[in-house]
Every structure is written in structure tokens, then in C-alpha cells.
Amino acid sequence: MEKGSILRLKFYFYTILWEVFLLWLARKVFDTFYNIKGYDINYQETDPIIIFFSLFLASMPSFFIPLNNKKPSTVFFVIFYYFHVIPSTLLFPIILNNYNENVILIFVIFFNIIYISYLVLYQLLLRNIKIINMKILNNKFRYWFLFFVNLFIALELIMLIKVFGFSLSLPSIFKVYTQRGIFKEELNDLPRIISYIIINSCYVTSPFLTIKGITSKNIIYKFFFISAGLFLIFYIFSLTGYKNSLFGILFSIVSYFMLKNSKIVTLTLSKFIVFLALASGTINLFIHNQLFETELIHWFRRISLTQGMNVAYHIDWVLKNEKLLTYDAVYKNSAQIISKVYYGEVGNAPAGILGSMLEFYGIIGIFLTFILLTIILVFLDNLARYFKEEVIISLSIPICYAITGTSITSIFFTYGFVLLILLFYFKYYNLNWRKWQ
């Protein structure tokens, strides 16, 4: 086992590589989409000293993320750090380079202090809170619940097929935005529950069925559940063109096998993210292919840069309206406002919890946000007392990623966190997933 200082330096090294990649990708994206509103950024006007200082500040939280455990909360901190904190810290001074340098530095420092403070507080005091007792469940009631859960999964698929028809004609990765536009038009005339079913299926139901199949020892169950999980996600992708639906199931499967025999999830996860990024960037530099270009410019941009851009635009909107620290900071439909004002599109541009916490009741919103986040993380860490960590982590990764790009309040029902907790609670007697068999 390597010493802690060596492991910490490795994590810091991976973090620096990730930051450099994001800066390179941001420049490439802004050059490519310069004629598109929202991406017409004159990054050359940004003071290089400010960029270097932001890069330095963005690397500081890497010294506070724990290395010596395998908890779901640790995985969340890594994902949130890599896909929200770092992009927000790096892109804020680039996108809003028309502001006074002191204003930029204040916000960059502020966001990092908030993140580090909460990270340390959670590790020292909050992660040991115990709120779940699996053994109080009545066996008879459990079987009835499992029956209704399976019935619910079957009914939601039947409902989707009835509404949209049956098709597994997957949209080309070059035409996903066209498919998404068609789907949004269809969705406008449908009950809101259809949207909930689709998102819950992407982030919870499909990964749950797939991991259940992967961990099953019965070959028939293994084939059935893996097929059901993959069928559901590909069916939804064929309808919606949502790239995140594929990202969720991909990360669930990869993280299960990657973390199964790993004790240091922080290094394993960060190494995988950086390797994937650098491999994609290197291939793009030497092989000029439309497929690789699309993967880098569209897909990597979506999962890594978009959150940081939205945060910058949310903050810009708040500053221009001078409603930062008051109750008036609340404004309805903020994601739609940012999309229309800054991107010139009718849609959503959510900023995740780091960018939206100030829009919810000003300073009070910071405390409300972290209370809700603590509830989510404590529940996941409590589940890890009973279930194998790689199972908990692989099924919670889609939700952890969703937090980087949406409001914290929508995680509980829209993105299926409550459904995930219930599914775990009533899977306690599944011997493949329990720590003590």
C-alpha cells in the first residue's frame, strides 16, 4: 500500500490534468461555435494571470477529498468536484471577463471555500449519522412491495409504448438534437407524469435492472434483467435522443466492475475520467474524424463544460439584477430565463446546486441546499452499511451526476432518488448484494 502523501499527490496530478484538458476543450468549443449565441466568448481577452490563479484555486479541494474509504458520499464529492466545481471555477473568469477582476476572484474563492467547508464538515460530523435500519422490515410486506414494484416497472414500459409506439430505431449521434426537438414537441401535449417516468427510468430503473442482472448467479435471471435494463434505456434513447440516458447506464456498468476490487475509489474514479478525456483529446488531435469530433465537441462538452457555463450565466444574471443577497434573489423558471437570454433558445439551462443555491432565497438558499444534500448523502452512506459498496455506488452515480446539473429539489422525485432508496430497502434480503450473506 502506497503512503497517503503519494496517493494524495497522484490525485492532485490527475486533477491538474483534468483542469488543463477542460481549458483546452473550452477553447476548442468556443472556436468551433463562435457564431452561436452563448458560445461567442472572446477568451483571448481574459487575463492569463486570472486563469492561472483560477486553475490553482480549482485544484485546492483535491487536498480535502478523502482517499481512504469506499463510501458513496466520497464518489459524489469526486463527481461533483470534477464536473461542477472545477468547470465553474475555470469558466467563470473566461466567460465573464468583462467584470472587474476583484469581482471574479471573490466568486471563484467563495465557491471553493463553500465546497471545501461542506466537504470537511461532512467528513468530520455528518457521515456517521445513522438513520436506516434494514432489519425492521416485515418479510410478508416486503414480498407484496416487490410485487408492486415489478408491476410498476412493467406498467411504465407499457405506458411509454402506448403513448409513443414501439421503436428501437436509434438516432444517429449526429442527429440527437433533431430527435430531441421532435420529442419535446410531443411531450408538450402529454401529462407531466410521462416526463417523470422517462427520467426515473434513465437514472434508476434501467441501471437497477442491469446491475441486478450482472450480479445475479442464475444465468436465466442474468440474461433477463440485463436485457430488460438495456432494452429500456435504448428504447428511451430512441424516443428522446437524450445523451444522458446512455451516459448513466454506461457509468453504472463501468463503475461496478471498476470499483468492485478497488479500495481507493477517489483515485480509481479520477484516473478513469482523466484517461477517457486525454484519450479522446489525443485521438482528436491525430485522427480528424467526424465521429471523434462529435464525441469531443458535443458529448464531452455536455458532461463537463455546460454546467460551468450555466453557472457563469446564472451569476451574471443575478449580478445584473442586483438581487444577490436578498429574498428577492428568487426568480421563477430561472433555467428557462438563462436559456432564452444567454443562449437564445427556448429550453432549460440549469446550473446545478452550486450555481442555483444563491437564486433560491439568496444566502438562505445555501443552507437549505446543503441540508437537502446532506439528507441524500447520509441515506446513501447508510445503505453502504448493509449492501456492497460497488452496488450502491454504481446505482447512485447517475443521480450524483444529475446533481451537478440540476436543482437539488428535483433529485428526490424527478430523478428518482426516493425510488432508489425504496428499491434498496426492499432488496435487503437479496444475498448477492448484502455484505453479510
Description:
The radius of gyration is 22 Å and the shape is globular. The longest helix is centred in the last third of the chain and has 31 residues. The two termini are 28 Å apart. The protein is mainly α and 437 residues long. It has a domain of 241 residues. About 1% of the residues have low confidence. Helix 7 packs antiparallel against helix 8, helix 8 runs antiparallel to helix 9 and helix 9 packs antiparallel against helix 15. The protein contains 16 helices and no strands.
Spans of at least 5 consecutive residues with low confidence: 325-330
- Could you tell me the number of beta strands? 0
Q: State the end-to-end distance.
A: 28 Å
Tell me, rounded to a whole number, the average pLDDT.
82
Gyration radius (Cα, Å) is 22 Å
